[in-house]
Amino acid sequence: MADRDLVVAESPVGVLVGVALAKGARRLEKSVGMVSAGEDDAIHQVRVSCRRLRSDLKLFRKLLAGDWAPELRADLAALAQACGEARDLEVIAALVRENTTSEDNEEHVDTILTALTLGLDRAAARSAEVVLGETTKDLLTTIESIAAGPDLNPKADRPCGEVLPELLESATAKFTQEAHKLKPWSADDHWHEVRLLAKRVRYAADTSAAVLGEEAKATAAQAATYQELLGQHQDHCAAADALTSMAADAAAQDDPELSFTLGRLTERHRAARKPLREQFLSLYHRP
After folding, report:
1. In the chain, which end has fewer C-beta atoms inside a 10 angstrom radius, N or C?
2. Which segments constitute the CHAD domain (predicted)?
3. Which residues contact 105 (CB under 8 A, 6 or more apart)?
């Protein structure tokens, strides 16, 4: 079955597992083609495709038999990680451009952006080599083969209408549990973990929406809003960390003026976290 619209509430949930994996394989194959064609945002789309597949495997984990799922999740994680540095540097460079002001030393800013761009180009080349390699081709073949007949346990015979609300509630409950703990002063890593959980809820709701309808779509939209805010927060955290490392390198090379500029930029990104945290908490705790 190639069309998720053919999966209904009465369908065995195992059918949706295969359909979701097949769709994920097509999404990943398309993004690999984008890399081959040199399209913009291609590396990022490969990363997103891997994450969505991993999310589906986690959503359905209690329905899966055998040891194929952990192995597949590990292979997808490795491919996503191979794309991570390039995407992170792309985001950081864009943020640095957006957040510089006339008060910043223009020569220093050019030096910083040149270093980031050079790192991005090298990372993108490494990512493309992995994405277009034989290992990725084998991975796509494996996913397509599994999707045609995944090894499932008897729980997968239950109807979608019974199982999906339970699975989605489990993902939502974990997000709620951790989001409730967030405070304005919580560590960056805790905010990042809640972001990942929001993304998991969004993907789970997207996968369930063909059967659960408007309620799942609303859950996905709300999770996407949370993910967007927390994603911006994470981007500023990553930028601050990268600039801090560059400042240390500049200081080690006895370039205190460049180190000073990097320090100013770092503090600007750290300061950008506060309004994003306040906005998330206000939205999350809204009655």
Report:
1. C
2. 10-287
3. 257, 261
> Could you tell me how many helices (H) and strands (E) the chain has, helices first?
10, 0
Q: Token pair of 157, please?
A: 């015979």
Find out whether 150 and 12 touch, Cβ atoms under 8 Å.
no
What's the residue count for the chain?
287
CA pair distance 77, 104, nearest whole angstrom: 39
pLDDT, tens digit (0-9, with 9 covering 90-100), for 24-68: 999 999 999 999 999 999 999 999 999 999 999 999 999 999 999
Q: How far apart are CA 10 and CA 188, in angstroms?
A: 43
- Please report the domains of the chain, with CATH numbers, ordered by start residue: 4-142+157-284 (1.40.20.10)
**Alpha carbon distance 192, 42 (integer Å):** 24
The answer to whether 55 touches 168, Cβ cutoff 8 Å, is no
* Cα–Cα nearest to 112, from 253, 259, 273: 259
pLDDT for the residue numbered 215: 94
Which among 108, 124, 105, 106 is positioned nearest to 46, based on CA atoms? 124
Let me know: does 200 contact 167? Beta carbons within 8 Å: no
Calculate the CA 20 to chain-centre distance: 18
Question: Strand, coil or helix: what is 234?
Answer: helix
**Could you report the per-residue pLDDT of 128-168, keeping only the tens digit for each?**
999 999 999 999 999 999 999 999 999 999 999 999 999 99
Phi and psi, residue 64, nearest 5°: -95, 140
The half-sphere exposure of 97 on its side-chain side, counting CA atoms within 13 A, is 11
Q: Which two tokens stand for residue 4?
A: 């998720």
SS3 annotation, 77-129: HHHHHHHHHHHHHHHHHHHHHHHCCCCCCHHHHHHHHHHHHHHHHHHHHHHHH
